[in-house]
Amino acid sequence: MSVESAKDVSNDQLIRRHEQDYQYLRSQLHYRRIDVDMVLDRLSEFSVAVPSWALGTGGTRFGKYPVAGQPRNVFEKFDDIGVIQQLVTSTPLVSLHIPWDEPEDPEVLKKHAASLNLGFDAVNSNTFQDQAGQPVSYRFGSLCHTDPKVRQFAIDHVRHTIDVGKTLDSKAITVWLADGSNYPGQMHLRKAFQRTLEALQQIYEHLPSDWHLFTEHKPYEPAFYSTVVQDWGSSLLLAQQIGDRAKCLVDLGHHLPNTNIELVVARLVDAGKLGGFHFNDSKYGDDDLTTGSIKPYQLFLVFNELVDAALDDAVDFNPAYMIDQSHNIKDPIEALLQTVEALQQSYAKALLVDRALLASGQENNDVIMAEKTLQTAYETDVRPLVAELRRMKGGAIDPIHAFRASGYRSTVSSARDSGEYVPPQSL
Ligand code: PSV
Ligand code: MN
Fold first, then answer.
1. SS (H, E, C) 174-211
2. Bridge partners of residue 246, in order along the sequence
3. 232 strand-pairing partners
4. 47-345 — its CATH code?
5. What is the pLDDT of residue 371?
6. How many angstroms does the Cα of residue 325 sit away from the middle of ligand 2?
7. Is the peptide bond between 148 and the residue preceding it cis, with omega within 30 degrees of 0?
8. What is the residue with the minimal CA distance to atom 1 of ligand 1?
């Protein structure tokens, strides 16, 4: 059955129960003086980009268990993202990794994307891997490298990524650097940062005037002693020195355990430098787990800051929302459906916060009242509200139910790869 028909069948099966749940929630929210239509309007504007690298099965250095029928090329990745967009209605854009998903002919890919009602978000450069036949190596870094030839090669690659993005109508580039060192003494910490800044300044000169450049920080991995852009402070220093259109990208998994990420968000908003997000979740490090699966309250608190900033007229605010996950065990399409539902729910809950009550609790140092205001919003079961949002926009009341009913995975399994276990060659 086509995904479209499966969605209709699934919605028909679920509609009565959904109507009851939604009307009950609506009356509860009405009682709390919440303008449900306003919440739905804002939710319907929410958009999060799907990364081109999340559709295949990820792996660890211990091996890979590919899902059957995973996409074999960028066109099939777009097909899968088209399915996601049909069901969840909040993912009209794709974030491409270059060269992993570099199209031979961008015009052909653009047409394919348009036929699926998809467009392009930030492009991502890759200076963390040597490509086959590459004349220089990133073994000891890319933009921070001691050898100017390696730096120039990396600069040229990032500029090329911008050029590819231009042909696709992207408006931003995300630069994540693996550069760092594994042992004390290996790298001159200040010089490496300076070289990185200078290289990014050269890249910025190549940036079209309507583009943004995002710098993405990460504390460790693959470098295990020092990373050049290891935290939001380093990222902010870079963005501030590079120029107005340089901003910081926050990947939720790129923080040491217990970091207060919502505070990082607030600081970057204040500095006018919050450029974008990579959503995922983690228990220990850069685990790339499904958004909201481990720390849903933290996700809500992040969205609370985002909504607070969006409602503040004094703040110039338009961050790009992207997913960055690697699905080792789950069916990637189902994991992404789950992810978008989690994001829609978190955003909806943040929109339910009684901002006047919260402000009064804060101004009067009424700790209990302020905290309870957030908890009341967080504890609201908004699933019927986001289901209604999807239904109204032509999507699925229950995306995973509809996806399974379509049999899409088994259809593509016969057309694409078999999904056999891939062992590591060495650890
Ligand atoms: C690095 O861990 C990262 O978060 C960067 O965003 C990369 O572009 C992405 O993952 C894919 O490797
Ligand atoms: Mn990331």
1. EEECCCEECCCCCCCHHHHHHHHHHHHHHHHHCCCCCC
2. 213
3. none
4. 3.20.20.150
5. 98
6. 8
7. no
8. 176
Q: Whose CA is nearest to atom 5 of ligand 1?
A: 176
Residue whose CA lies nearest to ligand 1 atom number 10: 324
DSSP 60: B
pLDDT over 90 (residue 219)? yes
Range with the poorest average pLDDT among 112-116, 120-124, 324-328, 414-418: 414-418
278 ligand 1 Cβ < 6 A: yes
**Strand (E) positions, 133-177?**
172-176
Distance of alpha carbon 192 from alpha carbon 23, whole angstroms: 58
Q: Is the CB of 288 under 6 A from ligand 1?
A: no
Stretch 102-117: mean pLDDT: 97
| CB atoms closer than 10 angstroms to residue 96 | 28
Whether 418 has a pLDDT exceeding 90, the answer reads no
207 Cα distance to chain centroid: 22
pLDDT at 419 (0 to 100): 76
Measured in residues, the chain has a length of 427
Give me 179's structure tokens.
Answer: 């550069």
For residue range 343-365, list pLDDT tens digits in order: 999 999 999 999 999 999 999 99
| Long-range contacts of the stretch 27-34 (C-beta < 8 A, 24+) | 28/380, 29/352, 29/380, 29/385, 32/352, 32/354, 34/352
175 touches 216 (CB < 8 A): yes
Structural domain boundaries in the chain = 47-345
Is 324 touching ligand 1 by the criterion CB < 6 Å? Answer: yes
Choose one of 220, 324, 327 to mutate for the ligand 1 pocket test, by most ligand atoms within 8 angstroms of C-beta.
324
Which listed ligand is nearest to 250 at the C-alpha?
2
Beta strand pairing status for 119-120 and 123-124?
unpaired
For residue 201, give both structure tokens: 């300044």
Q: What are phi and psi of 57, to 5 degrees?
A: -80, 130
Q: Which two tokens stand for residue 85?
A: 């967009």
Do 346 and 304 contact (CB within 8 A), yes or no? Answer: no
Per-residue pLDDT at 270: 96
